[in-house]
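Async update (no meeting this week)

Hi team, since we skipped the sync, here's where things stand on the single-chain job. The sequence we agreed to prioritize is pasted below, unchanged from the tracker. I ran it this morning and attached the output directly underneath so nobody has to dig for it. Comments welcome in thread, and please keep replies under the output.
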Amino acid sequence: MRIAFTAARLYTPVEEIQNPLLIAEDGRITELTSRSASELPRNTRLVDFGDAILAPGFFDIHIHGGAGLDAMRASPSELPRLGQFLATHGVTGYFPTTVAAPLDATCAALGRLADAIEEQASSTGNTPQARPLGIHLEGPFLSHKRRGVHPAENLIAPTIEIFDRLWQAARGHVRMMTIAPEIPGAMEVIAEAARRNVCVSIGHSDAEMPVAQNAVNAGARHATHTFNAMRPLDHRDPGIIGEVLTDDRVTADVIADGIHVAPVVVQLFLQAKGVERAVLITDAISATGMPDGRYQLGPIEVDVKDGKCTANGSLAGSVLTMDRAVRNVTRFSKWTLRDAVRAATLNPARAVGMASNRGILANGAVADFVVLNGQGEVLKTIVGGAGA
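Output:
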């Protein structure tokens, strides 16, 4: 069925179109123009969102769960409920993300997540839901010193053999991997993962700047939750953060909840990486959208109170939603809503090599988009052209 959508404005997000006309058919965008430049085709249903804004659906490349569900523990049949929750916050695609767990348990979780990714193509229903588009391995190749809440006993020295075991368990659906480049064996794994088109992200790391530079030269191209679980920036010893903030080959993400990183430092991060390389993530856990209490993050028990997630005194993920992250960016900095939307859509899609048809509104792209008001609040989410 062919459907046309219109509103007051549309963010591609590279440009803004006034009075847009977006036509979707069979889950793809077939035409994108302005109403003044094109007439509505015959036999086309029109959906008018009035004075709202159309923007690409948000893409969260680092999320552990929400709505009471943990991505590593949920069954494939449960993940649609997580997808429905995410869609209410404007997310249309996401990377379920692991934490360091016993290797057998991690491989079992990867198999379940691969099932969910492969089964989504045949799923039907009128309720919009975000789709798992790939897997993010956060661990087990992390620094002991900067592991955060990841259990020390579940960290493993990186080898190509272990990486391949994880890859096979996920049936090739690993699209992103966080790794500490200073660990012996990391450079070889970085190069191999990059060869398999994995977005290699440096993080949970105590690396000095030259080591981080070597990682980028080996194939790393992203950084995980900048400032958190990293060697701190020092004016005489810039370390990994010095490389992340100054190398234009590196995109980087940040948790803009005002808890993990102070608002003024979020502003500094945005200025350093710019509108093309800054990426928003949530690092959300199963407690997101739920009342305070105790929740699971993989094998880790996390206490949640007043929006803060902790385990053994350390921050353990967040209860941030992507729509709030977008609004926070406009509050913490001088960025426009369109710039903030770009950091949650096109930029993550480019970082993980999926920008040909995700994170952007253009002819041929997947018809996943969000309807926002002028303050960045979600009015409706459309997945594959459906849900209006």
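Quick observations from my side:
The radius of gyration is 20 Å.
The CA atoms of residues 283 and 291 lie 18 Å apart.
Reply here if anything looks off.
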